Every structure is written in structure tokens, then in C-alpha cells.
Amino acid sequence: MSIAETLLIFAGIPAAIVAAVYALVYGAGGRRASKRYRPGRPFAFAPVWFVAAREHGVPASPTAHAVTAGTAKPALEAGGTDAVGDEPVTVQYGETGGASDSW
Amino acid sequence: MTAGEAAKLTGRPEVLDGPFTTPQLLRLDEALRLAEDSTGLVFSVYVGDLDEPVRGHAEKLHAQLGRVDEAVLVAVSPNQRVLEIVTGARARKRIPDRSAKLAALSMAAAFGGGNLAGGIVAGISQLADQAGKE
Fold it and tell me: Buried b / exposed e across A8-35, counting CB within 10 Å, b at 16+?
């Protein structure tokens, strides 16, 4: 067996296996893990706002879910842009209760 | 054009680009629907950044919901690591602030462990349990 063949078998094949495992772990798994929230890490997703589907009279189904979330979004953007201008409006709803917490 | 119309054109709902996977979205949908059906209150969940003051922004979002008096909003800001529960005047009678605080505590514990969807679902079911039947 020549030196080239020896190298190919004893270095090339292990290197190929290592590369394959690396690709499997960081290629396929990495994308899925990025969806997960980790405390302390930046959270770069677009804001989402969910309202129960009953309000729109749509029976529960995966498509109904998408519609709910999609239609709710414009209201959210409106709230975000004129956040300062509409301040007195919340005073009218001063009877709101609830709770706050942080982690 | 609203976001909903945009989603119809592209055929892919924008919510899939959000922080939740499809099974988590389905669980969230189920939790919201069950909570609303059993209590008659309007439940809503917002996940995203909140402007300062956080409480004021959450109340403003709450005011945009239909039937404000009966609306319950859970606003979660993972970046600021805060969560706000806002209850309308009538909802507050069924979910006292102390019970809301209890739900907020358990949600914050789940969020601290990185479990965003699980915490929200557990919090909603806790709030719905507290509100009781319609």
C-alpha cells in the first residue's frame, strides 16, 4: 500500500466521518435550536399578538390560527408607532388590574 | 394591506416566523380558545418588546382589544424580561390582582427556564381556572 493510499484510508475516511457528523449537528440542528428562547440572549423575533379565534367566528383549525395571528398584527403596529401620542387614552381605562413580574 | 392579506398572498402565515414552532402555536391556540370558551372573557397574548413605561404600553394594547372590560391581556417581553397581565374592569372582579400575581409568578418561573410557550399556556390556564365558569 502506497503512502497516498494509507493517508486516504487512515486520515481521509475519519476526516470525512467527522465532517459528516459536524454537518449533521450544526447544519440541521442549529436552525431548529435558533427558534428557542434563552434567557439573557437577544430575542430578535417580530412581535406577535394572539387573540382567541372565537371572536372572528372561525372554527378552530390550523388555518384559523394563522388568520387570527395575522389580523391581530396591524393593531399591534398601530400601538407601537403612536405610543407617546395616545397616552391619555389609557387613563380612561384606569380601572384595569393585573400583575407584573420579571425574570 | 394588512398582515393577514399579505399572508394569504404568500401562502405562508407570518406567525411562523415568530418565536414559536407549529406544535407550540397549536397548543397556544387551544389554550386561548378553551380559556375564552369556558370563562366568557377575552384572552389575548402579546409576545414582543414593550415601550417604556412597560405597564402603560401593556394597558394601551389592552385598550385595543374588543370588549375591554372583559379582556385579559398577557404581555411578555423576552428582551426586557418582564411580563404584564392586564385585566379589564369586569375581568378584574373574576381574576383578583392577587391571583393574577400568582399566575405571573409561575409564568416568570417558566420563562426563566427558557420555556416561553409552556409558561404562557400554563399562565392562561391558571387565569382561566381562577375566572371560573361564565
Answer: eeeeeeeeeeeeeeeeeeeeeeeeeeee
